[in-house]
Design brief:
The complex is a heterodimer of chains A (410) and B (224). Chain A is mostly helical. Helices cover 81% and strands 1% of the residues of chain A. Chain B is mainly alpha-helical and 224 residues long. The chains are: A mainly alpha (410), B mainly alpha (224).
Amino acid sequence: MTFNFLFLVAIGIGFYTAFNIGANDVANSMGTSVASRALTLRQAIFIAGIFNFLGAFLAGSYVTETVRKGIINPAYFVGNENSLIIGMIAVLAGAGIWVTVATYLKMPVSTTHSIIGALVGFGLIEVGIRGIQWKIVLTIILTWITSPLIGALISYLLFTFIQRKILNTLNPLKEAKKIVPFLLVIVIFILSMFFIFGGLKRFLYHFYFIYILVISAGIAFIAGLRSYFSLQKNYLRKNRGYEKTENLFKPLQILSACYESFANGSNDVANAAGPIAAIVMIMDTQKITSQVPIPLWILIFVGIGLVTGISTQGYRVMETIGKKITEITPTRGFAAEFGAATVILFCSRLGIPVSTTHASVGTVVGVGLARGLGAIDLRVIRNIILSWLITLPAAAGFTIVIYKLITIFI
Amino acid sequence: MRNVIAELFRKSPLEATGAHLLKVKECSDALKPLIEAFIDRDKKTIGEQVEKISKLEHEADIIKNEIREHIPYHLFMPIDRSDILRFLKEEDSIADSVEDVARLVEMRDTTVPQELKDNLIKLVDKVMETVESLRIVGSEIKVLSRSSFSRIEEEKISSLIKNIDRKEFEADVIQQKAAKKLFILENKLDPLSILLLMKIMGEIGSIADHAQNTGDRLRCIIAR
């Protein structure tokens, strides 16, 4: 009876966490698209909702598995399953409280970092140092440092490529008509690969990866050809204002926004779904080390949480961005979004939880390094690093306190 | 709700200089009516123009200070911080010099000798052309920034800056001729008039100098 109640509490906090993530992260993936006028606010919310959900559903299981059993070694809880259940609730609550407190203190904290800090805190207090899979934790922390840097590098290189091939030429519009279809092929190829792969993995157990590659390449190639011919048909004119060139990048930016939303969903879903999955799977099977895949409904449930956050809070967050950022153009937005999405999705596939916000910040700076932005406030980066350092002990501390409180009362 | 991405972006100071340049140009546009009134000894118009110039100069100062305040050290920009501050300072000196001319003109009731009138008008026209050349360059700055410092745009601006240099040189020649003429007339004029006319012509010439220097500063910004 108590555990049913605790389970409801876990579900509730999990939904709250997903809601907050959705509300915050929609701006990372969609803010620049709204600012560059590639999408209206309404369209952005709609696309973000759909693709976040698809990302959570189709590619969210890897990171969820890591959060569920990668940080804390579940083997230590055999015969003591209930404390793991309580612990996971404490993890959700501790991370949730820390994120709420930090938001109140105006600190740019990451939910992902909070969850990992909370897991480590719980593992340490219940099992001790040996209870944590330090190799995985260190890999994750290392990725937190490298992912914004790699994202910045990708965006820098991509934007430099666009500069060299398009912006630095005598007739940018003409060059853009050649390059845009090529970039389109790349984005569609990656997206459809993850779509088909994620979909097939869910519903079919036997398939050959090469088929997916061929089908995705085919779809991407056809889309690229279509875009190439429809662009060539248009009357070629010299245009110095760069505006028409930028306009050609709007569809690409919309695609890269879908891509980033998908990537965000696939990584962020784990913050709520991981602990919930741990609880549900123990309650269902009473076996901690089970190898069955994560129940679909959890990913769907958390996905709905994300979408609720996006659709109810997204307007407020993005409206300010749309008004404030006038510097972002479709080429710059595309370069930033593509870099962030690629890094995040790659981490998702490897099962590494990363901060999607930090990746986005890194890629914006990458575009800035290529002289793509008028001015970037470096204080933001300093604040991020400071909050980053505080988050691990703070989230761990809150989790330990809550865990102790629950165990006293039960 | 705070958003990190929104806070990351700051307004481009380079693009903001466009408004300052327009104000400076507006200020220097009052130079022609001022000098015409000076030649005609129309005290009323002189007074009006002086007032207009000092008002515009003040407004330019306000824009300049606003831009300066928005370039703190923790901004990361595609251009050097000190380069843009120097550029802004030089651009602002144009308005300062226009105001100095206005003050000199207002200071003393001086007759411009008939023989010098043409030279003076010619000098003013050339100086105005110099400032206009700078304005044309200035209107390209936003395009440069929007194109993410496209090399084509950089080359275009570089060649436009050469126009400023040429006009400034021409203004120098005109100024030198006018000075020589003034001393040919030295026996007909009282020393104080000569002193004042020399000063006025010198100050008008320095407007063109500042315009040229502003162009030079822009060269530094681009050459990075």
